[in-house]
Automatic annotation (TrEMBL):
Primary residence: nucleus
Keywords: Exonuclease, Hydrolase, Nuclease, Nucleus, rRNA processing
Species for this entry: Compsopogon caeruleus
Single GO BP term: rRNA processing
Domain Exonuclease, residue spans: 1-140
Name of the molecule in the record: RNA exonuclease 4
Annotated GO CC locations: nucleus
Protein location: Nucleus
UniProt lineage: Eukaryota, Rhodophyta, Compsopogonophyceae, Compsopogonales, Compsopogonaceae
Alphabetized GO MF terms: 3'-5' exonuclease activity; nucleic acid binding
Keyword Manganese: no
InterPro entries: REX4_DEDDh_dom, REXO1/3/4-like, Ribonucl_H, RNaseH-like_sf, RNaseH_sf
Family membership noted in the UniProt record: Belongs to the REXO4 family.
Job of this protein: Exoribonuclease involved in ribosome biosynthesis. Involved in the processing of ITS1, the internal transcribed spacer localized between the 18S and 5.8S rRNAs.
Length: 152
């Protein structure tokens, strides 16, 4: 779990001990190995969940494919406070499917990301930079959104 502030400074960056056994770490994609999740350094799920919830309370959540992250953490967040680069119409540009973060980073920022093992800080910063690039238009397009939460 990685959370940044508006300036891209890391607020929280931890490995979370899973509540169920992991059968495939997909290390080639995730960069995660057994010891990352099952060492003393890994944070218990409930503690990570509480911390994330506390940090996010009353704040705008910017990221990519946030529905997945919220589902895994079993959290909800008010829809009006979510800025998801994977679903915003402003970045769809005629695409049928939601764009991958790697593609958006290249097209919107000229950045090549995700070239090695997964780096959650790199991903979070890319999503934040994409949001900041389009923030004015994005916020104008959100006028009148409801306060309903996006549930896990």
């Amino acid at each position: 779990v990685t959370l940044l502030n508006f300036y891209g400074v890391v607020l929280y960056d931890v490995y979370v001990r899973p509540t169920e056994p992991v059968t495939d770490f997909r290390t080639w994609v995730s960069g995660i190995v057994h010891s990352d999740l099952y060492s003393k350094k890994a944070v218990p799920f409930a503690k990570a969940q509480r911390t994330v919830e506390e940090i996010l309370r009353g704040r705008i959540l910017v990221g990519h494919a946030l529905k997945n992250d919220l589902r895994v953490l079993r959290l909800s967040h008010p829809h009006r406070d979510i800025r998801d680069t994977s679903t915003v119409k402003l970045l769809r540009l005629g695409r049928r499917q939601n764009p991958k973060l790697q593609v958006l980073a290249r097209e919107e920022l000229g950045l090549e990301i995700q070239k090695g093992p997964h780096d959650s800080v790199e991903d979070a910063r890319a999503a934040l930079l994409i949001y900041k690039k389009h923030a004015k238009a994005w916020e104008r397009s959100l006028a009148g959104l409801s306060n309903e939460p996006v549930e896990s």
